[in-house]
Amino acid sequence: MPGLYLNGQETGVGILDLRITLQAHGDAPPEVVWERYADLRRWPEWSRQITGVESSGATLKAGVTGDVIGPLGFHVPFRVVEVGIRRWRWEIRPLGLRLRLDHRVLARIDGAATELRMGGPAPVVLAYAPVAKLALRRLVTW
Question: What is the pLDDT of residue 4?
């Protein structure tokens, strides 16, 4: 399988992988922004490309798995890898391709900011970035 290996371990960076960082800030308090992330049932409220979530848990916790349901009922499997204080990491597998997403929520004087670091196959990252940016803007806005 193509990829980059270091000391026999896959680094997670494939030959055609791309990593980007997206940011958005708004007037919603950081506690509200985090709650919108943490409650998986609320994802369709701010991420309109998501019509539903089927998961092994209702809140963000490491090990939670499931499917994000998109337009036309398209299911994308996911796994939450890590959850910390106002940060979380997960992997999704659209069409069997692995996309890694690291999220953070930051407090600002006038509200909150969110940051998404995304890595995976370049065509998938480039196609998803504009949609993700719109969702992040809604996430941080009252």
Answer: 47
Given a contact cutoff of 8 angstroms between Cβ atoms, the answer to whether 137 and 26 are in contact is yes
**Residue 16: both structure tokens together:** 């055609």
* Helix ranges, the chain (H): 30-38, 43-46, 122-139
At residue 81's C-alpha, the angle toward residues 65 and 57, to 5°, is 35
> pLDDT at position 96, please?
87
Q: DSSP class of residue 59?
A: B
Tokens of 118: 């995304």
Q: Tell me the residue ranges of DSSP E strands in the chain.
A: 5-6, 9-10, 17-26, 52-55, 65-69, 75-84, 87-92, 99-108, 111-121
**pTM for this entry:** 0.86
Domains of the chain: 19-139 (3.30.530.20)
Token pair 């991420």 is at which residue?
A: 47
- Residues 6+ away with beta carbon under 8 Å from 75: 54, 67, 68, 69
